[in-house]
Design a protein that fits this description.
This protein has 389 residues and is α/β, with parallel strands linked by helices. It folds into two domains: 191 residues, Glycogen Phosphorylase B (Rossmann fold, 3-Layer(aba) Sandwich), CATH 3.40.50; 185 residues, Glycogen Phosphorylase B (Rossmann fold, 3-Layer(aba) Sandwich). It is 42% helix and 17% strand. It has 15 helices and 13 strands. A seven-stranded parallel β-sheet has the order 3-2-1-4-5-6-7, sandwiched between helices. It has a six-stranded parallel β-sheet with strand order 10-9-8-11-12-13, sandwiched between helices. The two termini are 23 Å apart.
Length: 389
């Protein structure tokens, strides 16, 4: 039985990487692996972790990263480490404390790249390059990210594996029954969820809704998610308050509903399955990955997105609609197209669902375990050769 150690944030900490780590672990277990966690805790909260968390790294304490490596090195059960790389979850400048873990680690590791910046500043480029080059394998989630890793970060292409972002195994539910259950019968539901912050593009979504609300008064835009913790730390609810003011200024009170909390999987599944249109109005066109967009594809939703990198790749071949730019007018055009034509919605749902089946965590975890198996076998061969066996 293989034992893996995943390094990343982990519940009860609430963030996308924590959910990803939890889902990856849960779906590796049926393959017969033991999966331990090294959980990264932020300095502003304390967490009571479940028993699978074998090591805790204090985000802003560099020595903890080295200590984690030494612990893994001296734990004979740990055969491989899976490091979730996202600049913001590690301490130091651009998360460079993770390099203290990597430089001391003697076990083979996979690096899962959640953000691959196409135009990094020098230090960001150095951090990811230094993290990637000693890795036994690098996992990215799009073909564009693979190309950036080779072109910008000089990662050998034979070390890169492209694996889609996993989607929780949400129980399929009937949309109309869910709407009745939640008191939303006769409403057309548009949804955006995830941490709230300027990078979400909510102001574009609201302004586009204002352009079509008179034609579609039954449209209801559900915005689900709490303010991003780092944004909350630095400026409190200033951004959310600006969004609330925009709703009032645009007279959208009857067409917008906020859920101001982090959704668990059951709530997220219900939110997605009662949705008619998932709206992903990111303003950053270099956005490399979007967990919420992946979830919407996995649930077979009709999706409208701004033309950011991840959306353009995932929604290609008719799997979703891409606005011509990030303006409210461009988004409104696509909303009008779907709201005004049920056949378009049905077609988009069918195309998204075809790809979405491959995004299910049980399938994605199978790819991870196969990559891990190859990495461990290659490492064993290397060790035997090193000792002349």
């Amino acid at each position: 039985m293989n034992t893996y150690l995943i390094v990343g944030t982990y519940p009860p900490r609430k963030c996308g990487i924590a959910s990803f780590s939890h889902d990856l672990r849960s779906n590796l277990l049926p393959y017969g692996h033991q999966v331990l966690m090294a959980a990264i805790s932020d300095p502003f909260s304390s967490y009571v972790y479940p028993p699978e968390v074998a090591f805790t790294i204090r985000q802003e304490r560099q020595a903890d990263y080295a200590d984690c490596a030494h612990w893994a090195n001296h734990n004979p059960a740990v055969e491989m480490v899976i490091i979730q790389h996202e600049y913001g979850i590690f301490g130091g400048q651009d998360g460079d404390y993770v390099l203290a873990l990597i430089s001391n680690l003697q076990k083979p590791y996979l690096l899962v790249t959640h953000t691959v910046l196409p135009h990094p500043h020098e230090h960001q480029q150095q951090v990811l390059s230094k993290a990637a080059h000693p890795a036994a394998g690098i996992i990215c989630m799009t073909s564009r990210a693979r190309k950036i890793l080779t072109d910008v970060y000089s990662v050998p292409s034979n070390k890169i594996f492209m694996v889609p972002h996993g989607v929780p195994n949400f129980p399929v539910k009937d949309r109309e029954l869910l709407k009745v259950q939640y008191g939303l019968a006769d409403r057309r539901i548009i949804t955006t969820f995830g941490f709230v912050g300027p990078g979400k593009g909510l102001e574009f979504g609201l302004k586009s809704l204002a352009l079509i609300k008179d034609k579609y008064p039954e449209a209801l835009y559900i915005i689900a998610g709490k303010t991003h913790p780092m944004l909350m730390k630095n400026e409190g609810e200033r951004y959310r308050n600006s969004i609330l003011e925009l709703v009032s200024r645009l007279h959208l009170e009857d067409n917008v509903f906020f859920i101001n909390r982090f959704l668990d999987d059951d709530e997220m599944g219900d939110c997605l399955y009662l949705t008619d249109i998932y709206l992903s109005p990111y303003p950053n066109l270099d956005q490399a990955v979007s967990g919420p967009l992946s979830f919407a594809v996995g649930c077979g939703k009709a999706i409208i997105a701004t033309p950011y990198a991840y959306a353009q790749e995932i929604l290609a071949e008719g799997r979703g609609l891409i606005a011509r730019d990030t303006t409210p007018e461009a988004i409104a055009e696509q909303l009008d197209l779907v709201l005004g034509n049920p056949a378009v919605q049905t077609r988009l749902e069918k195309k998204a669902a075809e790809l979405g089946r491959s995004f299910a965590w049980k399938n994605v975890a199978g790819v991870y375990q196969q990559i891990a198996k190859e990495v461990i076998e290659d490492n064993d061969v290397g060790e035997r050769q090193r000792f002349g066996l």
